[in-house]
Amino acid sequence: MQKIISAFILGVFILIPSVSFAHGNNESKPAILVVSFGTSLPDARQAINNLVYNVKNEFPGSEVRLAFTSNIIRRKILKEHGESIPNPSQALAQLNDEGYTHVTIVPTHMIPGEEFDEVCEVASAFGSMSGKFGFESVNVCSPFLNGVKGCESVAEILMKRFESQLKDKETGIILMGHGTPEHFANAQYLQLQLALNQRAYGRFFIGTVESAPSINDVMAELKRNPGIKKLILSPLMIVAGDHAQNDLAGKDDPDSWLNILKSNGWKNIDTYLVGLGEDKNMAHELLRKIHALNESEDSK
Ligand code: CO
User: Fold this and answer.
1) For the residues 290-297, what does the mean pLDDT come to?
2) Are 151 and 233 members of one domain?
3) Tens digits of per-residue pLDDT, 228-283?
4) Alpha-carbon distance 176 to 198, whole Å?
5) How far, in Å, from the CA of 37 to the mean position of ligand 1?
6) Max intra-chain CA distance, the chain
7) What is the pLDDT at residue 299?
8) How many domains does the chain have?
9) What span, in angstroms and rounded, lies between the C-alpha atoms of 82 and 268?
10) Has residue 298 got a pLDDT over 90?
11) Are 20 and 13 in contact (CB under 8 A)?
12) Beta partners for residue 231, in sequence order
């Protein structure tokens, strides 16, 4: 018990000078909080790590941290790997405790759906707090498929990503987005489809796991494009996690898109199971968005 008490007292003495230093001097301490849904698959995690690595490199003057929004995944990682990854509010409370004053939250979500709304709620709660438990500023970057411009940028990235496959006119690229059934942000997938159609008509086919367009919509669209003889299946997600491995390309799962397409007569199917977070152009787009947000804040 005595050991615990002395450790506690020591902790208090270590903490007090650092906290009072930051607040006492009104020193500006910037931080960037990268927020992802998360994944428990170590290989898929590479996509998130790549984005964090790029942000750290681009903003060496900022403290860069990572938070996951999925409690199920956070608890699974803690249990299986002993790694504790905070949720966004824990990460913000920790940054506040360490004296950080200006926080830029960088969601890695594709659409501004429910997950993004929840991140915004946490940000606005912390942003509205004044006094020693609040920050001087809390700003949130938009997700990738945000409005027409965001969809145009991602369409350009996808054109480069599948540049070699697009050269073969018989190849169709099927992209699996996550989708959300009850949020208007789901319409962003159709906005992206439009942007892709303008660049390579009849070559990209977007579907979603959870919502519309479905795999049936994708197959109906394939019928309208009889020139397509080969397919490539790839996730339209930051991480090639559970959905990509099982719902998209699962060989043993009769309901996987791979097997649905096979049972509908498609023979020539390839998969490209790499998360968009591993794409260097997606990382550049993320950095561009952070710079744009900082500039718009500076000009206020
Ligand atoms: Co899901």
Assistant:
1) 93
2) yes
3) 999 999 999 999 999 999 999 999 999 999 999 999 999 999 999 999 999 999 99
4) 19
5) 9
6) 77
7) 84
8) 2
9) 42
10) no
11) no
12) 172, 269
Q: Which domain does 270 fall in, by range? A: 147-276
Which of these three, 115, 143, 171, is where a domain ends?
Answer: 143
The torsion angle over the Cα atoms of residues 20, 25, 28 and 34, rounded to 10 degrees, is 0
Residues 130, 229, single domain; the answer is no
Task: Specify the CATH number for the domain of residue 118.
Answer: 3.40.50.1400
Catalytic residue among 102, 178, 183, 291: 178
Judgement on whether residues 206 and 159 belong to the same structural domain of the protein: yes
- Tell me if 265 is assigned to some domain: yes
CA of 177 to the centre of ligand 1 (A): 10
* 226 Cα: distance to centroid of ligand 1 (angstroms): 31
**80 CB burial (10 A radius; 0-12, 13-18, 19+):** exposed
Give me ligand 1 centre to Cα 179, in Å: 8
Classify residue 291: in a domain, yes or no.
no
Give 25 or 158, the one with higher predicted confidence. 158
**Among this protein's residues, is 178 annotated catalytic?**
yes
Tokens representing 73? 């995944």
- List, for residues 20-72, the tens digit of each pLDDT value: 333 444 689 999 999 999 999 989 999 999 999 999 999 999 999 999 999 99
Please tell me the predicted confidence (pLDDT) of residue 297: 86
How far apart (Å, rounded) are the C-alpha atoms in residues 140 and 124?
A: 9
**CA 128 to each of CA 42, 134, 137, 142: distance values in angstroms, whole numbers, following the listed order:** 36, 7, 9, 19
**Looking at the domain assignment, is residue 292 inside a domain?**
no
Alpha carbons 33 and 122: distance in angstroms, whole number: 12
Cα–ligand 1 centroid distance for 68 (angstroms): 14
